[in-house]
Amino acid sequence: MKMNLFGMLELSGGALHAERQRAEVVASNMANLESTRTPEGGPYRRRLVVFRAQRMRQPFVLAGISNSGSRGVRVDQVAIDPAPPLRRFEPGHPDADASGYVSYPAINPVEEMADLLGAVRAYELNSAAVQATKTMIAQAIDILR
What we know:
By secondary structure, the protein is an alpha+beta fold.
């Protein structure tokens, strides 16, 4: 049986990077929850991370199962949510329009926290996979001694 533990590290490493970027985007969304003015004009627009499957450079076999057709994950793009801004009647606000309405980002904090929890959990699982792989590599080296 052929096993490429370094290919497993590459797979988990790519997922760690993608989930970290997802968490950063959620943090940015939460930080801009009340941002009514941006350099581009208008309120902040919620960002969404789009993942894409990526073919692994080095195939590996684990427990008799090959990953030759398997794919890792990477961030393909950070897209802007097309949802329209939320409008609130605040005539005294400096960013109010002629009708007294202010446009706020269409960001739901509960949805963002759920997304963050998903990213954190996926990061933890991939981190555990990296640790397990490192342990297997160390044990393999010990066996060769």
